[in-house]
Amino acid sequence: MPHPILVVGSVALDDIRTPFGAVQEAFGGSATHFALAARFFAPVRLVAVVGTDLDPAHLAGLRARGIDTGGVEIADGKTFRWGGEYGFDLNARATLFTHLNVFEGFDPRVPDAFRRSPYVFLGNIHPALQERVLQQVEPPCFVALDTMNLWIETARDALLAVLPRVDLLVLNDSEARELAGEPNLVRAGRRLLELGPTSVVIKKGEHGALLLREGDIFASPALPIEDVCDPTGAGDAFAGGVLGTLAASTEPIHVALRQAIAMGTVIASFAVQDFGTRGLDKVTPSGIEQRLRELRLLTQFGSSPSLEATRAR
Amino acid sequence: MPHPILVVGSVALDDIRTPFGAVQEAFGGSATHFALAARFFAPVRLVAVVGTDLDPAHLAGLRARGIDTGGVEIADGKTFRWGGEYGFDLNARATLFTHLNVFEGFDPRVPDAFRRSPYVFLGNIHPALQERVLQQVEPPCFVALDTMNLWIETARDALLAVLPRVDLLVLNDSEARELAGEPNLVRAGRRLLELGPTSVVIKKGEHGALLLREGDIFASPALPIEDVCDPTGAGDAFAGGVLGTLAASTEPIHVALRQAIAMGTVIASFAVQDFGTRGLDKVTPSGIEQRLRELRLLTQFGSSPSLEATRAR
Prior knowledge:
2 copies of one chain form a homodimer.
Chain A: E1 5-8, E2 12-18, E3 21-28, H1 30-38, E4 44-51, H2 56-64, E5 67-75, E6 81-86, E7 93-99, E8 119-122, H3 127-134, E9 142-146, H4 149-154, H5 156-162, E10 168-172, H6 173-180, H7 185-194, E11 199-203, E12 209-213, E13 216-220, H8 234-248, H9 253-271, H10 285-298, H11 306-312
Parallel strand pairs in A: 1-4, 1-8, 2-6, 4-5, 8-9, 9-10, 10-11
Antiparallel strand pairs in A: 2-3, 6-7, 11-12, 12-13
């Protein structure tokens, strides 16, 4: 039986424009994308805050997908809104607006029923809030944490304070270089391990992901997706695939983590193919299986007979 | 027996500064790095031009490593000189000076003894010169071509004219996007295939390489090298590993190409660990074997039992 996962993060309404179209007030946020990905593998418990303006159909949609919304507080005010625009190169994103609204006063409260969650995902919120969540859960639990450049720059001490309690740090490549103060990505990953987490996953978008652990390193390319439509939330969907796989695994952690990164890669490949959370709605077990097979084939090469030539020369 | 490889490109003296040190008048150039990498796998024949100022020890060094310098013209004047500086982030490079000298009037002449070369590497020179080399070699031969943003921008027609005669196009990711006019790298690769070559290899530096063929795609991460010292020439060393492996292989091309990219990745990992061509001097058969093993392990993941969980949900 897969273990339950507690996720704490943002729930938002996103305005997104890419060269391939636009959506307004799409249901999103880090916790939403994570939950909608992780739920394929394990029970998911959501702690977040929304405003009274949120269409109840959104939360009902989460519940219909098996996500426990018992930790979603409905606060007086408006739901967090974010607007972003991607250029022709989907790697570059401009934030058009950020209206924190009720998210500004977010003080995550973990319901009693959620306190024993063997897996915890601390979505990208202020590290002091991430710390406060950890004070409310019962150990032992496997803790994964995502962060961003904003907190690295403005709340570095709080971030460094919470990292020793983290098992798996998830961040993107520019954040890894910035937090470690080291441009070589492998060295940056090693430095991050010294800050507390036993595993670090560095997300590289179209270039895949790197997993670093003491004495081990794993690299996954991204799947070659030609119709990337909207990368919003792909990193959280990736993390959802990773944590979901870990929570459902009975393998030793070093084996499970590689499988988990592969699964996160597969889930993220679905996520980017449509706007908002729509890509995740198209995930099927057979689709997962096929892309896992593709991912495995993608990096396979035979043993090289040219080595014999080398030896002969 | 490995087949001979003809390489045509630049031979230069490089001034290189990186945060890890500096060298002056280091023996370099695209053809040099390529030849010193390919020679581990197959006989290499070099066509290039140098000035009368070049220390004869450099060419003697190539010959001592089994490279046939019979196509190196010694012209009146000075050898091509290039100066570059890398920042703390080795991905960004500033060119300090480019003195073409005798390279400016380079008109490659392929000696009779080189005309039957089953493998040809057209290093990064003007596409009209690359075309002129092809007019001098006897088909059939497997032709690989490298190019750069300068030619894509200033000699696009000449480049498009030579591409139909090319089997393998080798270029880096920004060049691939620019030549294809397409930011999605996979789609860019597919468009480049439409321009003539049957295979395209996109070099992504620290993120590895992508191989695209009709109906097939292969991704190799870079090896996790923590002590990257000087990336100059790494792309040419990569290509040398690729062509060398192909020239030594008896496998079908689609199998050989994957092995070749893996080998190019391994050779490039040695190349970046020292200045100029010094890294390549440290390549040994056992070193190659170990890094090939590391590369294979780097992307391996077990079959995921969490799929069962997915199915059950």
